[in-house]
Amino acid sequence: MLSHHGDKDRGLLSYMELTDLPFLPRRMYYITKVPKGEIRGKHGHYEDQQFLFCIQGEVNVKLVSKCGTENKKLTPGDHIFLDRMVWSEQEYVTGEDILLVLCSRAFDKDDYFYEKQEVLS
Question: d(Cα 30, Cα 55) in Å, to the nearest integer?
Answer without folding.
Answer: 9
